[in-house]
Specification:
The protein has 322 residues and is of the alpha/beta class. It is 30% helix and 27% strand.
């Protein structure tokens, strides 16, 4: 079995493709043979050590495949079952041992590549739109990086809920893609001041909620996009971590609320994971969410996938094929 292994934190070049042991499933574990593996920006944080983990490590937090073997005490899964998962490190490998509690059975209508493209991003969209701030018809939201894998899923879902969706993107191609996938308006942040444009689009009122996975480059101006008592949801830091030295800025800009959510907490209970997955799969099968896989790389080309992702050269979801 081969895997992508990180022996030291650093750039994409530290992603080494080499032989690795699979082992045997222990109590509560399953052995999975991957058919597709999702790539997410959080994988780069693990690679660089921004989110530190013991070395050596195998990055990756989502995948889809078939069950090869189940360990003692596992119920609900059997060899041959089609499964997908998110939220457990170590997916950049041909086969793996993982906790059965993190896996969900795939409906017949969801193929492996689609599953690998949506599990982490789609379940993140679920808790952002349904739990962090329950989006409802008539509300207006701002979603940064609307043409990314996460953005395309979330903007389509928010649109299906009846929200007015304003997105941001950095090129004509990405703007067109975002407009075709749930956004009512898209701001080119490389050419316009997005905070000024949001105020124009909302008649000076501001939006109800901002979803920001970009981080440092967009955080402060995102606060200027909110209406009084609006919510700033900072769920990622692609351009660097965010820090607030003066909490008073929230009161001065309208008694704003701020949260930094994490899926680990929203899906701490298996029942919550199953509820979210059921909602996600239903949205995909109904056509409310159309999954866009913009890039496919061989597992051995994981370093190229990271370079493309960090270089903002990707659109939609990116997957690795073992």
């Amino acid at each position: 079995m081969k895997a992508i292994v990180v022996d030291e934190f650093g750039g994409p070049d530290v992603l080494a493709f080499r032989e690795a042991e699979t082992g045997q499933p222990g109590s509560g574990e399953i052995w999975v043979r991957h058919r597709a593996i999702g790539v997410n920006f959080i994988d780069t944080y693990h690679r660089t050590g921004l989110y530190p983990n013991p070395l050596p490590l195998v990055p990756g937090s989502e995948g889809a495949g078939e069950v090869v073997e189940v360990g003692p005490g596992v119920s609900g899964f059997k060899p041959g079952d089609r499964i997908a998962y998110q939220g457990t490190l170590g997916s950049y490998r041909e086969e793996r041992i993982m906790p059965a509690a993190k896996a969900v059975l795939l409906p017949d209508g969801i193929d492996y590549e689609t599953a690998a493209a949506i599990m982490l991003k789609g379940l993140t969209a679920y808790y952002l739109l349904f739990l962090t701030w329950p989006v409802s018809a008539g509300q207006t939201i701002l979603f940064h990086a609307a043409a990314g894998g996460m953005g395309l899923i979330a903007c389509q879902w928010a649109n299906a809920l009846g929200a007015r969706v304003i997105g941001t993107a950095g090129s004509a191609e990405k703007i067109a893609l975002a407009k075709a996938n749930g956004c009512d308006e898209v701001i080119n942040y490389s050419e316009e001041d997005f905070a000024v444009r949001v105020r124009e689009l909302t008649g000076g009122k501001g939006v109800d909620v901002v979803y920001d996975g970009v981080g440092q480059a967009t955080f402060e101006k995102s606060l200027d996009c909110l209406r009084p008592l609006g919510l700033m949801v900072s769920f990622g830091n692609a351009t660097g971590p965010v820090s607030i030295l003066d909490l008073g800025i929230l009161s001065r800009k309208g008694s704003l609320f701020l949260t930094r959510p994490l899926g680990t907490h929203y899906f701490a209970e298996r029942s919550a994971l199953l509820t979210g997955a059921k909602a996600l799969f239903a949205a995909v099968e109904s056509g409310a969410i159309k999954v866009h896989i913009g890039q496919r790389f061989a597992l051995s080309e994981a370093a190229d996938a990271h370079r493309a992702l960090e270089g903002r050269q990707t659109v939609g979801s990116t997957i690795l094929i073992p």
